[in-house]
Amino acid sequence: MSATADANPLGTVPETPRVGAVGLGQSVPRPDAAAKVRGEFEFSSDLSVDDSLFGATLRSPHPHAEIASIDVSAAAAIDGVAAVITADDVPGSSTYGLITADQPVFAATKVTYTGQPVAAVAASSREVAHRALDAIVVTYVEREPVLNPEDVVAAAERATEKNDQGRGHHRHLHDDDRARGGDVFRHLRLVHGDEAASGSIEVEGTYEIGTQDQAFLGLEAAVAMPSGDGGVELRTATQWLHEDRRQIAACLDLDESRVHIELGGVGGAFGGREDISLQIHVCLLALACGQPVRMHYHRGESFLGHVHRHPATIWMRHHATDRGELVKVEARLVFDGGAFASTSEAVLGNAVTHAVGPYVCPHAVVDGWVVRTNRPPCGAMRGFGVVQVAFAHESQMDKLAEAIGLDPVELRLRNALTTGKPLATGQLLDSVAPVRECLEAVRDLPMPITPVNGARDPRELPGGTGLTTAGAHVSRGVGYGVSIKNLMYSEGADDYSTARVAVADGVATVYVAAAEVGQGFVTLAHQIAASALGVADVRVAAADTDVGSAGSTSASRQTWMSGAAVNAACEAVREQMIADIAQRCAVPIGRLRIEQGVVYDADRRIGDVAECTAGQSYDHTCQYRHRPTTGLDERGQGNCQTAWAFAAHRAVVDVDPDLGLVKVVQVATGQDVGRALNPLAVIGQIEGGVAQGLGLAVMEELVDVGGRIKNPTFTDYLLPTAMDVPPVAVVLIEQREPLSPLGAKGVGEPPTISSTPAIVAAIRDALRRAGREQPLTRVPVRPEHIVGAGADGAGVDRHNDTGPAGKRR
Amino acid sequence: MGEAYSLDVNGVTRDVHDAAPTASLLQVLRERLGLLGTQGACEEGECGSCSVLIDEAVVCSCLVLASCAVGKRIITIEGLTESAVAEDIQKAYVAAGAVQCGFCTPGLVVATHALLDTASDPSEPDIREALSGNICRCTGYGRIVDAVQRVALERRATTKAAKKP
User: Fold this and answer.
1) Cα(A408)–Cα(A400) distance, rounded to whole angstroms?
2) A691 vs B140: CB contact, 8 Å cut-off?
3) Which of B41, B76, B152 lies nearest to residue A217, judging by beta carbons?
4) Backbone torsion region of residue A584, taken as left when φ is above 0, otherwise alpha when ψ lies between -120 and 50, otherwise beta
5) Distance between CA atoms of residues A548 and A513, nearest Å
6) ipTM, interface predicted TM-score of the complex
7) What pTM did the predictor assign?
């Protein structure tokens, strides 16, 4: 428990970590924590190499324009400038992309989003590099930007009607469009059960989700060095080393073996480092100059330089019996993918397949679109499409509960998924599925005891140190949310991880390319190796491309996938090592034990590992794949995912209904984690994810007007501080997942998903209790939505050009 | 365009050459003096990852002109580490699980040190307010508050024990 348990009666830590604890299930401290607290940890922005030049990027000031000309001569002539490169200087593929290679390394004939790279320079210092950028002359002819995704959908629907005689299709349209570079990244339709089914109770609503940014603190940074054989060495912060290598090699026209990547320290990622940002540019500059080049984005550039969470408009209609049993969910999803495809296809796939939520529902019709506009590209952010639909489906469940007169928790319990039930894709849910347990856990936790009104520390009131709330009218509300999230990749993706483990002289070294971005995989790798091998001295080598791919640090997959690969490699080493020792020491294998670096024959100590294996070394590489998944058919049906995790959230908020201010007082969560391999690390991930869910609920939005982001700064993009995030009460629901080699489920994404709708539900509840109901159908909830300044309080947003809220069928 | 001046950093006088007069203390610490522990996540005074102590007060070094810090006592995370004066704070952060990516961590250690230097029994709102100038994107602050509470408790216990006749 925390040190002052009475000050924080809902303290969350179930156990205090024991220094020296090594096994799985122990809260082993991070191996890199000591360096981090001392200021000695090397982040990618701390990397430097002698004689390195400084690289910088010229970006489009327009959301849509033709490039009439680019003149780099004045820039190239500046003293200290070593290279100025544009699209003409890209030797290989002119475009890159995670799924579809549609994104230009440098814009050549047109720009299609504000911030799109047009050129890059390498110079002797940052100041000279920026002077060179200013000296590049680009002549633009501005064009009208496409900013309303509904217009793109409408045009596509008209084209479909003309060409396709009304046949249902999804990827068909998309594939044609993709080939033409068309504006629909994906149209996916899902029909489960009977399309014509209906229920006696119907509720519908249209929901909007604004653009959230990952806002990782560690700014994009890299060092690239020519490796002398025409190849290049790159050190950078990324989520997927091998995928970066594939794209860099293609654009540089190099064999992948000539591109070597080593992971620099990563200051957070949350999906924002899955796509290429500066990697290809810095490698091109290094090869152009024949010298090392460093690049380092500043914050404003970072906001433009990586993908964001897709903003979306979602219409839903829920049908139920008058006992509250779900009969059918209809949904129409329109996701704004921005200028390039990134992972939009996969994000939409997730959104469509998760639109029903963690509930049993015999019939569903979901029509999902993700389209191209002239906004900065959208892609992966923790939750990956499910965050958006969860806000809609949980808001709908509350609406349904109210229409029927049922308690919102009871309605959810009545419909909760269990193992063995079919999902909206027709796939049977065969993961452990403790939905009921998660929800009951948060329902049963004691409520916070601090008084709503009366004498309170003003810092705990809505508005905090602004001292704006008098306190007398503060209303407290409670809200709930539950979610389902797939783990690992979907729809037939070849999802695997590789690990190599070597033991020599009693030292085990783990080589795995799983990007450590702060989530604690590096700790887990230590724990697995220590417990599987019994070796006391375990090192995890810096991640690089010498070992095979571990896949991305995303999709809540690394614990399951790379954990399994490391474990498999350790088992292979152990088997060989034990057989050797058995032979050497003439001891039956069955009696041998290795613990904390010592070899035992039952209880008799034989010697330490180094002695018992003197002269021998062991080295195994293993690959782990989860069971195959399939694509979706023309009704969106298929066994497209491999495992799922669940979470429930309860939020308590205080609201000042006159000023529209919110204080989140407490978030409680029950999360289905399978097995907590490191409870303290799991809690850290859950608390951090809840903070991001809170941010989306009440604080965070990238505001754009005319395709130009107005708040690419920490001053105006509001991130939750220690005064915004309340204590989080965590209940870990541990039911071992049989499909997962170590029994554990990924934990990174579920906390970000139903935390947002729970908080918004709590605000609605607080307003209802104050007699001031507001629909609150948009996140982030703004003061004017709470006060009811819009025509319907739904958040007709004056700040954004998002256009009219949704279209209904 | 070289300016030459000296800065008192971590008790050592360091000469700065050829820094632009517009250079922030953050830039000089990192790029001229090789002290990379102090980070710059926003360079606009919002995130606190650049926190240092100037004459014992926590400041955002990205907002201080290096040339204006002449004649002042500057302590960075390296100085706190070297002098071991914040060792219990650093150990508590590790033990409490308060470190994930670590980018905010040096700034938080500096801010925690400043808080506990002036407040021996901070309440939870006191702690959260004192650390509200340090953004953490990974942890949600729960384990950080716990770490600070542990240190405050241990220091009070140590002081109490020392005071016993």
Assistant:
1) 8
2) yes
3) B41
4) alpha
5) 7
6) 0.98
7) 0.95
